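Lecture 7 notes: from sequence to structure.

We start with a single chain of 142 residues. Read the sequence below before looking at the structure.
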Amino acid sequence: MTTVTGRCNGQPFQATLQPDGRGSHWLKLTAALRKAAKAAVGDLVTLEIAPVAVEPEPKVPADLRQALAANPDARAQWSSLTPVARRDWIFWITSGKQASTRTRRITTACDMLTSGKRRACCFDRSGIYSKGLSAPEAMPSP
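Now the structure, written as tokens:
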């Protein structure tokens, strides 16, 4: 994953490119950006992108924030991580399909952070081995 800044039909945006599972990335244009850029699905657009100078801080979900607040050692390790590493932890935690998986992953994350781990285990950021990180299928042309 990499965060970019750019313009779509002249409209500024910032977004995180997602791995496509084949060694490259894809960009999701939000409905708000498509509307501002006067672009419909299937339209050709003018797109300019460049990597951001500084990776933005990810939004920490409330349940993870509460768990970190209750565990000072995990919180200290979390604070020492880069924004990219924190984003990986958040994605790993939130990619579980069931609430019980998410709860278990938060507990596991706090344990791993407390023990000094800096990266989420079992997380494939490339998307090659996980269907959780892959490009959506293109819609058929009208």
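Strands lie at 2-8, 11-19, 25-26, 47-51. Keep this in mind for problem set 3.
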